[in-house]
Design a protein that fits this description.
Number of helices: 5
Low-confidence stretches: none
Bound molecules: iron/sulfur cluster
Distance between the termini: 16 Å
Structural class: alpha/beta
Number of strands: 8
Strand order of the largest sheet: 2-1-5-8
Length: 144
């Protein structure tokens, strides 16, 4: 399969903090698949490091309250275009992120609490007919 993967899960230091979300079990499970790494926030022109962001009432804001929605949506559009051009079969995305979160994201209070919903990029992928899953889901699928 051709699989689009959040670049931070592969060890790229593109997180807001300047770190990564390296996931060894995921990397093992991806063996034999073609991997297309993406970071929608960097693709949207955001810097590393950057202020943490959450979705607040449908708009992405950083922890200083500044509206960064446009950069998030631009990055998501660019990565969607890549998904279409690359004809990916699946996306495996970093949980909880305001871009990449699938099904659950931080709730907009910057307190670590989660709420139902997807990040901007995950939601855009799904709205365009792509399937997005968490690393945990993908590892379980690969073990079956
Ligand atoms: S936007 Fe996605 S790929 Fe980029 S650092 Fe955040 S979770 Fe990782």
């Amino acid at each position: 399969m051709k699989i689009m993967v959040s670049a931070c899960l592969l060890g790229r230091k593109c997180k807001y903090s300047g770190g990564d979300n390296y996931d060894e079990r995921l990397i093992e499970a991806l063996r034999g698949h073609e991997v297309v790494p993406v970071c929608p926030e960097v693709a949207g022109g955001l810097s590393v490091p950057r202020a943490p962001c959450e979705i607040v009432d449908g708009v992405v804001r950083n922890d200083r309250g500044e509206n960064v929605d446009e950069a998030f949506r631009k990055g998501a559009e660019r990565c969607l275009k890549m998904a279409v051009e690359e004809e990916i079969d699946l996306a495996v995305l970093q949980p909880r992120s305001p871009s990449c979160g699938v099904g659950r994201v931080y709730d907009g209070t910057f307190s670590g609490r989660l709420t139902e919903g997807s990040g901007v990029f995950a939601a855009l992928l799904e709205a365009n007919g792509f399937r997005a899953v968490t690393p945990e889901d993908f590892v379980s699928m690969a073990e079956k």
